[in-house]
Amino acid sequence: MRHNSSKLKLFLISMIAVLSMITGFFFMGHRAMQDKTTSKISYANNKADLVINKFHHTATRKGIKDWELTAGSASYYNGKNMAVFQSPSVTFFRKNSKTSHLEAKQGRLNTDSNNIEISGNIFIKDENYQIETEKLHYNHNERIIYANVPVTISGQNLNFKAASMTFDLEKNRIQLQGNVQGIINVKKGL
């Protein structure tokens, strides 16, 4: 009988050890999967202090919206006071409820000044025309969008190309500079 009781104790201890090992492997494997998933989401941009998917930011001045920015993702760098965006979309609010909508591949926001630098397949749509370029800047204090690279502006009755451009959002005025070429289609009777 003593022999059976020893075998039973040995069997129970073995089962407890096997179950403990299986449970340990399960939790370690599950933990490793969680760590891999978290690192892909949180540290997609290697040295960012914070990464946010589906980012949204609104800049206001005296309680009035200046612009809204949404992006597929944003990486925030605290030491540089900078946020870097992928697939940004910016809506600039102007007088008389007018808006200009911008889309691009990437962008960078200075979080101290609210100045923005945008690059890659930039497309700005307005109620009257559209602007295309590869790189531009937005100066928040002056409410000016400017590009120091070639731009194309087109609308129903116009098409212009220039080496650079300034768009004053307050005055609703675009100024083209350098090698300006364009066509204006004038309607009959004007």
Write up what this structure looks like.
With 190 residues, the protein is of the alpha+beta class. The protein has one helix and 14 strands. A hairpin with a 2-residue loop joins strand 10 and strand 11. The N and C termini lie far apart (116 Å). About 12% of the residues have low confidence.
- What CATH architecture of the largest domain would you give? Sandwich
What order do the helices and strands follow? Answer: HEEEEEEEEEEEEEE
Helix segment tally: 1
**Could you name the CATH homologous superfamily of the largest domain?**
Lipopolysaccharide (LPS) transport protein A like domain
Largest sheet: 6 strands, antiparallel, barrel
Give the integer mean of the pLDDT values. Answer: 81
**Tally of separate domains:** 2
Strand elements, count: 14
Shape, please? elongated
Quaternary class:
single chain
Strand order of the largest sheet: 2-3-6-7-5-4
Would you identify the regions where 5 or more consecutive residues have pLDDT less than 50?
A: 24-45
Q: Which CATH class of the largest domain? A: Mainly Beta
Q: Rg from C-alpha positions?
A: 29 Å
Report the helical percentage.
10-25%
β-sheet strand percentage:
over 45%
C-alpha termini separation: 116 Å
Structural class: alpha+beta
Assign the CATH topology of the largest domain.
lipopolysaccharide transport protein A fold
Task: Summarize the helices and strands and which ones pair or pack.
Elements: H1 2-42, E1 50-61, E2 64-77, E3 82-86, E4 89-93, E5 99-103, E6 106-110, E7 116-125, E8 129-139, E9 144-147, E10 151-155, E11 158-162, E12 164-168, E13 173-177, E14 181-184
Antiparallel strand pairs: 1-2, 2-3, 2-4, 3-6, 4-5, 5-7, 6-7, 7-8, 8-9, 8-10, 9-12, 10-11, 11-14, 12-13
